[in-house]
Amino acid sequence: MHIKLLPLFMMMVVMITACNDLTENKMLDNPFLTDYDTPFEVPPFDKIKNSHFEPAFEEGLKNHNKEIDSIVQMEEEPNFENTIVALENSGKLLGRVSRVFYNLNSANTNDEIQDLAKELAPRLSAHWDEIYLNEGLFERVKNVYDNQSNFNLESEDRKLLEETYKGFVRSGANLSDQDKKKLKEINSKISELTTDFGQNLLAETNDFQLFIDEEEELSGLPESLKEAARESAVEAGQEDKWLFTLQNASIMPFLQYADNRELRRKIWEAYQQRGNNENEHDNKEILLEISNLRLEKAKLIGYSSHAAYVLEEAMAKNSKNVDDILQKMWKPALAKAKQEAEDLQEEINNRGESFELAPYDWRYYTEKIRQKRYALSEDEMRPYFSLSSVREGAFETAAKLYGLSFVALNNVPTYHEDVEVYEVKDRDGSHLGLLYMDFFPRASKRGGAWMTSYRSQSKKNGERQAPIISLVCNFTKPSGGKPSLLTFDEATTLFHEFGHGLHGLLSDVKYESLSGTSVPRDFVEMPSQIMENWAADPEVMQSYAKHYETNKVIPDSLIQKLADVATFDQGFATTEYLAASFLDMTYHAITEPIEGDVNEIEREAMDAIGLIDAIIPRYRSSYFQHVFSGGYSSGYYSYIWSEVLDADAFAAFKETNLFDQKTADSFRENILERGGTEDPAVLYKNFRGADPDPEYLMKKRGLE
Questions:
Q1: Are the CB atoms for 91 and 39 separated by under 8 Å?
Q2: Could you tell me where the beta strands, DSSP code E, fall in 336-425?
């Protein structure tokens, strides 16, 4: 997943209202308010305290308001430099504090940060509304836009102008005063509710703990998982027990291996009921209100639905095109999932059991069939996928493709002891940027995996300003004296997020708001997903998959098993993903307010597409953070859209060789370096020479 904190002017985060000037002493004491005296000018995490955030926001807001006022009140006629570029370069202090604050709120939060985030949400929303709905400012922007032929603009200049103008229009700049007031109220409420949704989900995830005190109840579980559960229990003050949680690294292998069906049911029910427990963390009414407010906002601005508003800026362009691709994949995926369900039920029956396949049985009996058909065991695989080996495999892949090198740094402050930092150098040894990597779950970190940044790439006086990129994951922790040993899925996730990282690191554009991953949502996943192909390729695997104790390369027999099993269970994987994509559109393609019981709304939506009872959407409504708190509303389909692109793009390498220099250079120059400076369809054609062929994806997933 990708989380992008855009440059200040472009990002729809919100800032607090200014108060009195800070005293000179407070300014000197606050690390945000002076130049960072750190290597590579990274955030001084070792000096940043919770108490620094609010005054830094206040000072940053005051500065930003002054900068906006100076643009509006300028006596000079509007031109590209004094209006558009000035706007692009405004709010640097606000950007600096926002990036640190919101990244920490996701990766290493605490009660103070969460309380401040809730307090800031509506006030910050108001600040951005004041900018986008500022009539004098929009008048200048529109003047430049209408008279752009009078200026000697390069292509990237024109793109910045276009995006700036559209940003105002799509934010309501053309509305009446009455409608602008209404829009401000809607934006404020949405910002509150999305913050509440995410905090409720984190609380629900952290609140559940499954302690097991009888070892026989651990039957079927791998030793590595039992060791990790034992250590988790010790950390929780229960030395003679085993602790399992709703973190993916804990619950998913538990569902896959635990023989005790009742315990599988118990942890599964807790997982799929998050935000749906009629308690103080219930998200059902919140998500309905978010959906209806998004609809109201879209209609106010002139769109029929929130989906129509969002998709206008995406490659898909409209909800019909989204539905077309989802439906094209749905029929073969569901057919395959139904066959898989029959196989699982047969396995249950053959074992002398009389129950009907349930969602908490799927992973368990799939593993039994996998072992029978392919003799492939996670315990057999994990020793070859130590975190350090997989990380080095990703680094080596980037070295072969783009000539990059990664140098570990020990003199750079971090926000948590688990965080690693690397300097990234280009083929000629020049500095490209910094890469933070934060791998393990903790109560202060939300679930999932994502890429973000502490500084995006840009150019200042023609000189490249290097990015500071961060990858955040929730992988299996070291335990029992062993290093972190990943599942192959986790290894693939590392390559995926690393692909996002390369998109940010290799960016080479003029303007920050167009750099790196500042691209349409259904294009942003392509550079990440294409990297998954190298993770799974036998040639690449032999270079990085090495036994953590013996350093022996993974044997050909295991590589072959992975290849054989590549399309196994893809009916389930594709169906649960597509179901969530349909669910996203259920809430965001509406043209009239939605009401009623969320569980019933969800059930009807799944019945409409024929989802079988043994599978639920990858994310149920009440914990669908991607769309209700994570920026993917009307955009969860983008993973499959991007996967069509990545499968086709990887075919370009396979047509030559995995590390063909000409193909790699073209991908870097036409995709990774260009950010959002051009229509992504044009960028892709420049690389591939043609539109993508979806047949490569169908073959990859075994859905032909």
A1: no
A2: 405-408, 420-425
Rounded Cα distance, 197 and 276, in Å? 12
Calpha distance 407→398 (Å, rounded): 13
E-strand ranges in 466-602 read 468-472
Domain 24-174 shares a fold with domain 383-564+638-700 = yes
CA distance 280 to 201: 11
pLDDT, one tens digit per residue, over 45-84 is 999 999 999 999 999 999 999 999 999 999 999 999 999 9
AA identity, residue 488: F
With 0-12 CB in 10 A as exposed, 13-18 as middle and 19+ as buried, what is 681?
middle
The answer to whether 249 touches 479, Cβ cutoff 8 Å, is no
pTM of the model: 0.93
- How far apart (Å, rounded) are the C-alpha atoms in residues 336 and 558? 25
Are 530 and 653 in contact, with CB atoms under 8 Å apart?
A: no
**Residues 289, 634: Cα–Cα separation, whole Å:** 16
Q: Give pLDDT, residue 10.
A: 35
Select the CATH number that applies to the domain covering 383-564+638-700 from these four: 3.30.230.10, 1.20.1250.20, 3.30.530.80, 1.10.1370.40: 1.10.1370.40
- Domain residue limits, the chain: 24-174, 208-263, 383-564+638-700
3-state secondary structure (DSSP) of residue 69: helix
Active site residue 497: yes
Query: What does DSSP assign to residue 80?
Result: I
Residues 322-335: tens digit of each pLDDT: 999 999 999 999 99
- The span from the CA of 29 to the CA of 293, in Å, is 41
Look at residue 467 and give its three-state secondary structure: coil
Task: Note the residue count of the chain.
Answer: 704
CA gap 293, 295 in Å, rounded: 5
Residue 44 token pair: 């001084």
Q: How far is residue 360's CA from residue 265's CA, in Å, rounded to a whole number?
A: 6
Q: Which of the following CATH numbers is that of domain 24-174: 3.30.465.10, 1.20.58.760, 3.40.50.720, 1.10.1370.40?
A: 1.10.1370.40
Q: How many secondary structure helices (H) and strands (E) does the chain include? A: 29, 9
What confidence score (pLDDT) does residue 24 get? 47
Residue 72 bridge partners (DSSP): none
Distance of CA 683 to the CA centre of its chain: 22
pLDDT value of position 27: 59
Catalytic residue among 497, 512, 532, 673: 497
Dihedral (CA of 434, 439, 443, 448) sign: positive
Alpha carbon distance 455, 387 (integer Å): 26
Distance (Å, rounded) from C-alpha 518 to C-alpha 509? 11
pLDDT of amino acid 309? 98
pLDDT of 156 over the 70 cut: yes
Q: CA–CA separation, 373 vs 367, rounded Å?
A: 10
Q: Could you report the per-residue pLDDT of 534-588, keeping only the tens digit for each?
A: 999 999 999 999 999 999 999 999 999 999 999 999 999 999 999 999 999 999 9
Amino acid at 324: D
Any long-range contacts for 304-307 (C-beta under 8 Å, 24+ apart)? 304/591, 305/588, 305/589, 305/590, 305/591, 306/588, 306/589, 306/590, 306/633, 306/634, 307/585, 307/588, 307/589, 307/634
Indicate the average pLDDT of the chain.
94
How far apart are the C-alpha atoms of 483 and 54, rounded to whole Å?
39
